Amino acid sequence: MTVIQTFLPIAQTLYSQLTTERIQAFQLAQEFSKKFVDLGFKIVPQLLWAIGILLITRFTIGIIGRVTRRALSRTEATLRKFLVQAAEIVILVVGVVAALNQLGIQTTSVVAVVGAAGLAIGLAWQNTLSHFAAGVMLISLRPFEVGDTIEGGEVKGVVDSIGIFSTTVVTDDRVKIIVPNNKLFDGILKNNTAMGTRRVDLKIDIGDRPIRPTMAELLQIVESHPLVLDNPAPTCLVAEITPDSTILSLRPWCASLAYEQVRSQIQQLVKESMEAQKELEL
Predict the structure, then answer these.
(1) What are the b/e assignments for 152-161, b being 16+ CB within 10 Å?
(2) pLDDT of residue 124
(3) Backbone angles phi, psi at 15, to 5 degrees
(4) Of 87, 119, 122, 195, which has the highest C-beta tally within 10 A?
(5) Interacting residues of 164 by C-beta distance below 8 A, sequence separation 6+
(6) pLDDT for position 23
(7) Neighbours of 101 (CB within 10 A)
(8) Are the C-beta atoms of residues 82 and 163 closer than 8 Å to each other?
(9) Strands of 202-207's sheet, edge to edge?
(10) Using CA atoms, how far apart are residues 222 and 174, in angstroms rounded to an integer?
(11) 249: helix, coil or strand?
(12) pLDDT value of position 97
């Protein structure tokens, strides 16, 4: 009996402590549940708004893409595709920033980081961006088209394709050359086929032959060539007179695409004619 009386206060004390701890745990759980519910009521609407903003952004991107394609339907395909993608990316960035802001995330730091990254990329891609800007200008101003024969950027050939960053040129010996657009836009560019026709300038040394009959003979040679144009008419002028010879300037006209062929064939015909006449004189 004495033992029971001794341990009874200790048991009562332990039971009281356990009861107090249970009450505190219950109160803590109740407070946590309340805060969790309050947090849920606060976050869920923000999350739903953010999802709604992203869905609206996705829908807007589709509309902007269709409108931009329709508005730029007459623009060159490569430039049109780039501008459409740029517009869609801008709308996407705006939508993502708005969604993050709705969630309570400070977007100022995000924008600052993106801006700094953009600056770093811009400095690293300085040459690439210059080629891109030149490509946009070439596509917009159209100093040459696909199929034109050009001279520029230390190359000469037929334009095979025009891209945002570079232009592909095929030379006469069928070598494909990729030329950065900045090389073509910043330097001197010759478009040999833009006007449709070209004049072939030939210097003919006739020695001591009589001028007028020789000029008539040369004009007859070029006028009989099937690729030489009647309008403008070919001309033959005295270019230079020296003590030993006379040099004539023979100028037939032809289509731009036939320039090399006409130049070669006319020179061959003139040479053969002069040699034949020389043999007759002998």
Answers:
(1) bbebebbbee
(2) 52
(3) -65, -40
(4) 87
(5) 78, 79, 82, 132, 135, 136, 139, 181
(6) 58
(7) 15
(8) no
(9) 202-207, 246-251, 235-241
(10) 29
(11) strand
(12) 79
How is residue 144 written in tokens?
A: 């040459």
Q: What is the pLDDT of residues 14-64, one digit of tens each?
A: 555 556 655 566 556 666 666 655 655 567 777 777 788 888 888 888 888
Burial 60-76 (b: 16+ CB within 10 A, else e): ebeebeeebeeebeebb
Residue numbers in the chain where pLDDT is lower than 70: 1-42, 75-79, 82, 105-128, 281-282
Residue closest to 202 by CA, chosen among 141, 154, 269:
269
Name the β-bridge partners of 205. Answer: 247
Q: H or E stretch including 131?
A: helix 126-141
- Residue 107 in tokens: 């977007």
Token readout for 156 is 């000469």
What are the residues facing 158 on neighbouring strands?
A: 149, 170
CB 56, CB 98: distance < 8 Å: no
H helix and E strand count, the chain: 7, 10
Task: Show the beta-strand stretches assigned E in the chain.
Answer: 149-152, 155-162, 166-170, 176-180, 190-191, 197-199, 202-207, 235-241, 246-251, 253-255
Tell me, what's the pLDDT at 111?
63
